[in-house]
């Protein structure tokens, strides 16, 4: 049985391993939530795309306690962890790559913001176009798509792309040096060995929860997909190296 206390401890460990790849993770969270707050509603309706165990959504509700946040992911284990750690959030199991996924969200009004962090790059360039197109159908006019992730510019600016990567690596070295936090694979190996997650691990194995190899890691992939989906304005709100917060305005 997965208890709230055990889930909270696993979440702390999750956040720490994520920081090893994203030394500016909290700063990016803050910038993203600033943008949602700037919409001017104390009770925005937000969908968290590829929410994982809910780190971003938990911080968003902490800042905006009247917000309604719908957390969407396809990984049974991460959803189970999030439900145990954050019982006040609403988690929905849905695969963003499957058309019509927004119908499972139970939305009663247009969405003010669709947000995501370190998730959408796992989706292929072709599939991300469909994801953004579907998001556009539920966003209100002036609503935001906010995607925080590593996005490279190597297609058109190879020298700048190398510099962006170098800036990210220098920041990581300053914060952690040789003592890097636990890695992604080590975290998964550990949680798969925890008996409290046995049922969720079996469900994950059946569902094929591992990430696929086809990715949309280039900034141009996301800018092009947002423009094709009808977003009126697309640009970077925050950036450090190749770690950026991309914004599309509906």
Automatic annotation (TrEMBL):
Which intervals hold domain Methyltransferase?
Answer: 46-143
| Assigned keywords, A-Z | Methyltransferase, Transferase, Ubiquinone
Q: Where does the UniProt annotation place the signal sequence?
A: none
Do you know which Pfam families this protein is assigned to? Methyltransf_25 (PF13649)
Domain of life (superkingdom): Bacteria
GO biological process, alphabetically ordered: methylation
Quote one Gene Ontology molecular function term: methyltransferase activity
List, alphabetically, the CDD domains matched. AdoMet_MTases
What name goes with this protein? Ubiquinone/menaquinone biosynthesis C-methylase UbiE
